[in-house]
Amino acid sequence: MTSPNSKFAMKNDHFPGLDRPTTIVVLSSAFLLILWSIGSSVLDAGPISASIITYGLYLFYWMYALIRKNPLMQRLMIFGTVAGLLELITDHYLVDTIHSLVYPEGEWMIWSSPAYMPFAWSNVLLQLSFIGVLLMKKYNLLWASVILCIAGGMYIPLYEHLASEAGWWWYNDNTAMIFNAPIYVILCEALISLSLPLIVSFSEYHSLRKTLYMGLGEGLWIFISAVLAYTVAHG
């Protein structure tokens, strides 16, 4: 008799749309984002460079998903877009409630965030979620979640440092930091990454409507993670 755990592992052994070309595209684009961030930080390029890479990647991902008719990419784009839009609530909390996050003046804004920010979150969530899928191909759900949690938390100090040096955003000195990354942001990103393998595995085998619901749930979890992380870090 097959155990429930083994059935779950077998079920997640194949994700429709997970293939070698798509893996190369997503991992290469993630590497491109890192290189772009490094170049922007060296040049002190300012917010325009964040807008260019964000909108460029977002449009590219949608074109790839639709032209290739890739169901995994389509679901991840729906999921990331919905969660990215709800992240505006979290940004408002960070900017105008706890007065921690600062964006440069003169940008096109949606509420408290630059207009590109929901799409930036969509891009990052797609990349992290895709890596979560790759981890689930190799490990079970628990280990995939733990590994992605640690990796997400470790990556943030680098990315936040580059964003600050590039003039995309920065944080006030009212919170403890590692380099240019507040400790609570590192904890928050770790919690967000922890949730992704479970959400993606659930979404992949249900209707697109449930993928939308998962995006709403992830957007809410981003806010909860930020509040929890800030409370713990400043408790």
Structure characteristics:
two-stranded antiparallel sheet, disordered N terminus, mainly alpha, 8 helices, 235 residues
Task: Reconstruct the topology from this structure.
Layout: H1 4-11, H2 20-43, H3 47-67, H4 71-97, E1 101-102, E2 109-110, E3 113-114, H5 117-138, H6 141-166, E4 170-171, E5 177-178, E6 181-182, H7 183-204, H8 208-233
Antiparallel strand pairs: 1-4, 2-3, 5-6
Helix pairs in contact: 2-3, 2-5, 2-6, 3-4, 3-5, 4-5, 4-8, 5-6, 5-7, 6-7, 7-8
Structural write-up:
This protein is mainly alpha-helical and about 240 residues long. The protein has one domain. Helix content is about 75%, strand content about 5%. It contains 8 helices and 6 strands, in the order ααααβββααβββαα. The strands form 3 sheets. It has a two-stranded antiparallel sheet with strand order 1-4. It has a two-stranded antiparallel ribbon with strand order 2-3. Strand 5 and strand 6 form a beta hairpin. Helix 4 packs parallel to helix 8 and helix 5 crosses helix 7. The radius of gyration is 18 Å and the shape is globular. About 40% of the residues are buried. Mean pLDDT is about 90; it is low at about 1-15.
